[in-house]
TrEMBL record:
The keyword Nucleotide-binding does not apply. GO terms for cellular component: cytosol; nuclear envelope. The keyword Amino-acid biosynthesis does not apply. This is Nuclear transport receptor KAP120 (Importin beta superfamily).
Amino acid sequence: MSIRELLSLSLRAPEPQRLAAELELQQLQKAPLTASFVDSMLNMFLVVPNVDRTPRNPVEVDSDDSDLRLLAVLWLKHYIKQQWRAHKKTNMLNDAERDHIRGVLLFAALHEPHQTVALHLSFIVAIIARADFSSQWSFEELFSVMMQPLRRPHGAVDMVAERRSVDVCYRVIKELAARRLMQHRKQFAMMSVEMLPLLLQYWTVTATQLNNYLQTEEGAIRETIVEKLEKLCAVTGAQQLHVLVRTTKLISTMLLHAFRDLSTVQNGELIRSALIEFYKQLESIVKFRHAFEAQIEKFSRIKHTSKMEEATQTLDKYMHHIAAIVVEVQHAYPVEFRQYLSPYLTLFWNVLNVFSSTSLTVLAAPKRLQIDALNFFANVLSCRLYKNESLMRSDGTTRIIAKVITAAGEVALTDTMVIEAQTSLQNFFTQTENRFKSMINLLIMHYMMLTPGDLDKWLSEPETYFALMESLTAKESVRSCAENLYLTVVQNFPGQTIPALTQIVSSIAAYLIELGRGQISTAGDDGRVLEIDAVLVAIGLGCYDLHDCFEFEPWFLANLVPILINQDAAVGSFRGLPILRYRIVWLVSCYLAQLSTSVRPPLYDALLNLPVFQQTDTGVALSLRIIQTLESMVSDWGFEYDPFAQFLPRSLEYLFATFPQAVELESQMKIFDCLEAIIQACGAHILKFSQKVIGPLPTIWASESDASNLVRSKILRLMTKLVSCLKGLHYDVSLEAGDTDALLAMSTQLIHFSTDVSNPDHVCLVESGLELWNETVDASTVYTKEFHVLFSQTMYLMDRDYEHVVLLLRLLKNYVRLGKIQFWHDHQTIVCKLLLGVIGNVKAEASLQIAQVAEDIVATISIDQLSSIVPVVKSMVRSCIQSQHVKANHEPESVLAAYLSVLARLMVTSIDFTLNVVLMNDHIVLAVLVNVMLRLFYTVGESQLTLLRRKLWAAALCLISMMAEQQMLEKIGQVLEICAEVINDEPEERAEQEAVVDSSEKIDQSEVFGVEQAGFTNHQQNLSEQDASVLALDLRSFVCERMNILASKLGRSAFDQILETVDISVLRKFQA
């Protein structure tokens, strides 16, 4: 079956023919790349050249099925992408065949009549160029052919051919610019030097023709501009605009990737002429765009057609791409751009003013151009290399910095260059007027104000509006760019801008007071509310910069609090939207550090009692804003529980009352985040209100939606936080009977549901469920029947995979601590099977947990019930033995030390059981283990070998020495050195631990981290109870006693000979 038949079947044939054809086409993608196959496809579907480079088959191609041809080109694109590179084993082409295919594809891309097919052909050419240029595909063969239409031979203008040429060239250049090896970057620079003069010449001619056509003579009738714009909507005009836009992007790519090399062409005249031409063309188009807006506004009878809007959007895109070149060049090469600062500062200043002074009722403002202008000013005003003070000596003399490293490479910088840039900035901002003040006013009173589109979005989709306001970036929002520029100006030029801002703030004080008193007759429909909102945004954004010159709290209490607590919902609103209340609540989160403790209680009260809460249709955005501010307040370092205590029940009620109104997942997550922050801040005190927290959770859990499992995961995290507060009950917190019982009962139910792997829909909840399970068992003091039954689910989890092995091992450790002998009696088979299944098959983190579990079992369970743990300990012993083999792939030293700690614990518990049952009286193995212990004692850090474990090791080594074997006796000196070191370290480390415990007990229960400190203290208490016998052991007496017994076994003379090999300083420590 031919390739054409396969493509036709995969496009339109019914099943199963279509599927069979698709599978065969997929297999063909892996077939060797041969000239005959590719050439047959090219002749079958594409425009191919004659000998004289004219199209051979234009009629056949034009009459062919366009959808089938598009599918063929898409298939060919993926085939070429996979198989073209010369080093591919499936590439069967020789150099001549590759050259032929490249030429045909380039010809087809330039002459293809179907636009979409031509687009993908240009992608194929770009893919091949990335692989072959310039080693196998020379500049003359590729770009000279590609750019021939742009030369306009004999003065003929073929806009279709020029557009196709620019499109293909842009795709190729973009692909080549993505190659970042040094040799590729040099090739790109050389290519740009060759191409850019022609491109700039073509762009200048085309742009000048367009501007000359668009210019309107003074006094012309009103239809002139409109008619000219309508003519641009025609085929020729639209193509010309498209070519200009694409050529501008093409030039931008070259300038930004090869600027340094291009700046040396003609002694920099090429770059200079380009930037000058950009300025002229951009200025001209901006004037035309503004004049067109003026006529649209003046003559309401002019109909704004869809074609006119399309032409306007293309003009805006064209302006944006020119401006983007300037913005990016200045940002990447600020020193080289310094001489062009003055004209472009003026141009972009005019852009900001021109498109802010017109009340655009029909045409939308050119937002992307406004973003470019705002970003240009932000980049210039924040540029480090333009800051004169960084280059001046303290005595006022200047110095020369030979090289400065920038993102675009090294640049030679002198004070003269910096002063030149500073002079341009100073002249622009101060020569004719105080433009800093004008800029602050312009930014706040226009660009930072809410737009009609924002208000419409708030009215129709309040949750979406809230999320949008929180996530807008400077690349997509004019207002975000304006805020960024505002911050840049205030931070870098506070002396010039803060007085202007203070003046604006003072001008609104009277209005705010009248509004708070209800004295504004137009409340609810006053446009000044939007201006006040913008001023409050400026105050909030500048909170750090205004800290020393603006007393926020008294101003806030006098001007904003009356509006916040006013019972009339219309106060501070516009079009029914609580605009000022929303902004005031946001402002609180900005100035938390400056609000005194006495202000917080009334502020809590005001936030939780706003009358606008009842307006569920538009008040959701405000509710979410209040929730986020509340989260900030309880997470703040200045938070205290006592002032918040009376508002805690109302806060919980409000959060759960808002949840049904929040439809979007992101909004629901913010509510849960606030609940978690409250639990974290209140610590054990939250347990008094645990019923209010857990009461609504079953209803939320049961609700089904696309994001149900994400909500349930958040509920599990919330419950984990709440259960962890049980570990803080050593504080003086009075609880009613049943408070903790209901909490633990619900936790058990959630654990059972979320860790049930038989339900595949809830597998994603396993990790959160295990974390809750761990926290619940860790916080419990009684081993209940529910815990006992629940443990059987661990085997199902382990049988599924090892993904959660660390959490499961931590859970096992908590079960051993809580259930002790009762747990071990019923579950020892499961536990040992679980440990044997994972030991040696998991990473170091899990292996350390295995050792800790085994050590806890040995320390907790009596020796007569430890027979089932023997295989686990033997497996650990084997790992330690294997570590002595050089070529063995053994465990890390930290893991080996943990395994040896289990063995040492078992030896201290019963040396006979260890030697006879575990080691099977194999003294060779015992000798190897002793050598490993002696080596690791000094190489493993204290994080693994704690005081407790070092003491166990010392005691175990003493017990081993009692065997009186010769190879053991030879190690007595090393054993005594270890014991002496532990004896020396013990008082110091014990004092440090007691100091930590004392400090944790003194922490006030209202502090944010009280729960964690409480958990740490409980852990220390559990540790001391579990290992009391080891920690209380007098190691000096223990060693002396064992040495005396050994002396009686060996005889005094033999024992004295052994002691002669021990350092005298070590012996003195046992004689003291």
